[in-house]
């Protein structure tokens, strides 16, 4: 076909596309080496109890300190890691690092905080995930109740029967399970009620609209009542201002995360924050 177009054939060559392909290849090469080179790190975003205002946990969020690109956010490399299978060793590293960290906090006699780890679809599908989690818990000595694993709707609704079984295997270890980005996928309520899930995390996109948009607000109140009716806690993500927080408090949301309280921060900063919290009032 290129030949037939004669002298215009060069128009098939798209330099921009070529650049993108090359960039992806380069990123993939870098990604393969990044674990060995210890270029990954975790930031921790506090989870706050709405009623008491206390920090009760955090979510571990991975970042990549790339030698030339600087700090790369997960959305720029997790999909590639997922595609290439690199997510499996990376996910294991994140789990181990987060548990190690949480164990250290406990030793430092800080108030008990749980740590949440995001699982990827591929990681969840791997048959040996419960073994990995059990190994990491044994190795780090972290109390299983302090580990929370975040799954997304699409991961579990893909094959709900199999996912339900995998979730039970994880629950047997004593860990908590959360459904992340809830409301953005296609959850069947029929399965949802049978899943051993502890928390529903209401997606940020719904929280954003809560104050100005009555339909956004009613989605949030509905999700909170679904969670409570199923015996689950409701967690709001992406809370950016006081109006949103006040609304969530008024409808009985249990926990929140968001820039309003704190962005994801390095471990040392999170420790400092916990220490500030435990100071007696007035100090
Ligand atoms: P997520 O699990 O839903 O995490 C919440 C994301 O929202 C984080 O982005 C967080 O920084 C951001 N966020 C929190 N509060 C606010 C807020 O008030 N306003 C706004 N605009 N954003 C807020 P981040 O760290 O870039 O992570 C993006 C996604 O990457 C995560 O979404 C998660 O799906 C994925 N991810 C992060 N770490 C890991 C990991 O270790 N493994 C896997 N499989 N996925 C991960
Ligand atoms: Mg998450
Ligand atoms: Mg989320
Ligand atoms: Mg989200």
Automatic annotation (TrEMBL):
What's a single GO CC term here? membrane
Which GO MF terms are attached to this record?
cyclic-guanylate-specific phosphodiesterase activity
- Which keywords appear in this protein's UniProt record, sorted alphabetically? Membrane, Transmembrane, Transmembrane helix
Domain named EAL is located at 24-278
Entry keyword annotation includes Transmembrane: yes
A Gene Ontology biological process term: cellular response to nitric oxide
Name assigned to this protein:
EAL domain-containing protein
Give the shown range, full length included.
539 to 821 of 821
């Amino acid at each position: 076909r290129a030949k037939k177009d004669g002298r215009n054939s060069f128009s098939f060559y798209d330099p921009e596309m070529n650049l993108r392909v090359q960039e992806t290849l380069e990123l993939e090469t870098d990604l393969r080496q990044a674990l060995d080179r210890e270029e990954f790190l975790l930031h921790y975003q506090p989870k706050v109890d709405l009623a008491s205002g206390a920090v009760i946990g955090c979510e571990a969020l991975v970042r990549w300190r790339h030698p030339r690109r600087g700090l790369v956010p997960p959305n720029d490399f997790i999909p590639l890691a997922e595609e290439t299978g690199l997510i499996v060793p990376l996910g294991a590293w994140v789990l181990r690092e987060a548990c190690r960290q949480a164990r250290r906090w406990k030793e430092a006699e800080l108030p008990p905080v749980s740590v949440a780890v995001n699982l990827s679809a591929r990681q969840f599908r791997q048959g040996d995930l419960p073994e990995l989690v059990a190994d990491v818990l044994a190795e780090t000595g972290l109390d299983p109740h302090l580990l929370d694993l975040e799954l997304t709707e699409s991961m579990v609704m893909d094959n709900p029967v199999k996912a339900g079984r995998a979730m039970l295997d994880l629950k047997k270890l004593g860990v908590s399970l959360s459904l992340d980005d809830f409301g953005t996928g296609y959850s069947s309520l029929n399965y949802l009620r049978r899943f051993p899930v502890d928390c529903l995390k209401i997606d940020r996109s719904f929280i954003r609209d809560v104050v100005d948009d009555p339909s956004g607000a009613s989605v949030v109140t509905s999700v909170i009542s679904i969670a409570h009716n199923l015996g689950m806690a409701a967690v709001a993500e992406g809370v950016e201002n006081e109006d949103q927080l006040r609304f969530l408090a008024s409808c009985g949301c249990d926990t929140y995360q968001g820039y309003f309280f704190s962005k994801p921060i390095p471990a040392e900063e999170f420790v400092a924050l916990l220490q500030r919290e435990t100071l007696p009032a007035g100090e």
